[in-house]
Structure formats: structure tokens, C-alpha cells
User: What shape does this take?
Amino acid sequence: MNRDKLLGIIEDMNISQRQLAEAIHVSKNTMCSKLNGKGTFTVDEAKDICRFLNIKKTKLMVDIFLR
Assistant: This one.
């Protein structure tokens, strides 16, 4: 996962990690752990994140979650 790219988008949209966690139905602790590389997002979580952040470009999705 490209943590910096994802965090950059979250910051640019002025969204908190708590808001993102609530949007994909995980705890804030789980979100923080996954963003810090102590876990991975499931496919469904990645899709939900993209939906919530309005990420529609496949290349950007791949850059964030598969690199």
C-alpha cells in the first residue's frame, strides 16, 4: 500500500482518520494500524475507501492499494 499517497488524499479532502474508519465500518485503532502497515485492507475495505474518497481512476486505485 502506498501510505503516503492515501494519507495525502485524506489530508487534501480534510477528512480525519476517524471519519474514514467510520465510513468503512472499522474502529479508529484498526484504521490507524492498517495505515501504519500493521495490517492490510481487505478488498471490500479498499473499495469502500475509494468510494468514500471518490477515487474512480483504476490507476490511482492500483497505485494506492497494490504497490
In short: Helices lie at 3-12, 17-23, 28-35, 43-52, 58-65. The CA atoms of residues 35 and 54 lie 18 Å apart.
